[in-house]
Amino acid sequence: MEIINLKPTEIKKDFWWVGAIDWDLRDFHGYETEKGSTYNAYLVKGNNKVALFDTVKAEHTDTLISNIKQIIEPDRIDYIISNHSEMDHTGALPEILKIVKPEKLLCSRKGAETLQLHFHRDDWPLEIVDKETVLDLGGKTVQFVASPMLHWPESMVSYIPEDAVLISNDIFGQHYASSERFDDEVDQGELHRQAAKYYANIFLPVSSGMGKFLDKLENQKLKLDFLAVDHGLIWRKDIDGIIEKYRFWSSQKTVPKAVIVYDTMWGSTAKMARAIADGLIGNGVSIMVFDLHHNHRSDIITEALDARAIILGSSVLNKNILPKMADFVTYMKGLSPANKIGAAFASYGWNDVATKQLNEIMEGLKFEIVDSGVAAKYVPSEDDLNKCRELGKNIRKAILA
Fold first, then answer.
1. pTM to 2 decimals?
2. First and final CA of the chain: distance in angstroms?
3. 310 and 235 housed in the same domain
4. CATH number of the domain that 364 lies in?
5. Residue 365, CB half-sphere, CA atoms under 13 Å: how many?
6. Of 31, 198, 246, 262, which is the active-site residue?
7. pLDDT for 65-123, tens place per residue?
8. Which of 88, 263, 299, 384 is catalytic?
9. Has 293 been annotated as catalytic?
10. Quick check: is 14 catalytic?
11. Mean pLDDT, to the nearest integer, of 6-20?
12. What is the pLDDT at residue 1?
């Protein structure tokens, strides 16, 4: 049964959050969402017209309708704006359209194509908008800014200058379920960790486009009192801070930090990982060590977001790297981290194929390979572990170079 879990929140006069909280979401396309998420929709009343910005995931349709009814009857909505066609923002759209019967369903050209491909309806009142479009609600106007491939081809954001609110789609979001609605109402460390995790696991592969979008926002000199995101907490206090973080992340600049990631069969690669960490330890370099048996791929990628070095290790199974490492590198390849240095290590019983495979994967990602790697047969000897420590020292030098 659907749980009606929050009341609408007025962000500015006649501008409400009417979305839904997904307390139980724990996986989003392979990204672990341990804090759940929100699907943020916004209702805006002008003097003459009413607009709904985005909807929610299909199973939360009743919550959206209930929240709207606490403000106005749904059939008083004149326009629905679809900034992003992904199902967590359009799943409720068919039911909402039946109830609302809006004059127009506004979206980008690619958005219209995507909505048709999702729902196969030719009777919806679709209207294409672009940067020249100004939607007049009476006392409030809506402008549209294209944000293609951030992170789908049809994505756009909506700006209401009279309220100085950017309805920013997935940009600046977090998967963060909370009874609070604004950034300054929650723990700041957790908020920024979730924002970093969201960028690392959603926007990292489109960082170049993100940089261009941020330039576009800056050039337009928009006054921003709120960043009304589609997931998580709405930014009203640290707007400059989150934009600056997005600048840094989209540049794919790094800090002196090494992330060691490994999978182990009988503990040999674990010993090697610790020896490499011993060689890396010293002032000026931060080190994180992750056993794939105990750490989720999306948390590791979050730590790797700004790391200069990624070091991968695996045992050999059936002439291949272990399955958890194969899972991790497949996920990492899709996210395409840049400006990294890398190295590999492995333990094996018959033939060392793991260091070769891991090096090839990192070379494919254009990592700078700082060492051909270390391999140990069965259980690493003290000599093998010393080679691992030396590898750590070499990586440290490369990080600080």
1. 0.96
2. 58
3. no
4. 3.40.50.360
5. 26
6. 198
7. 999 999 999 999 999 999 999 999 999 999 999 999 999 999 999 999 999 999 999 99
8. 88
9. no
10. no
11. 95
12. 37
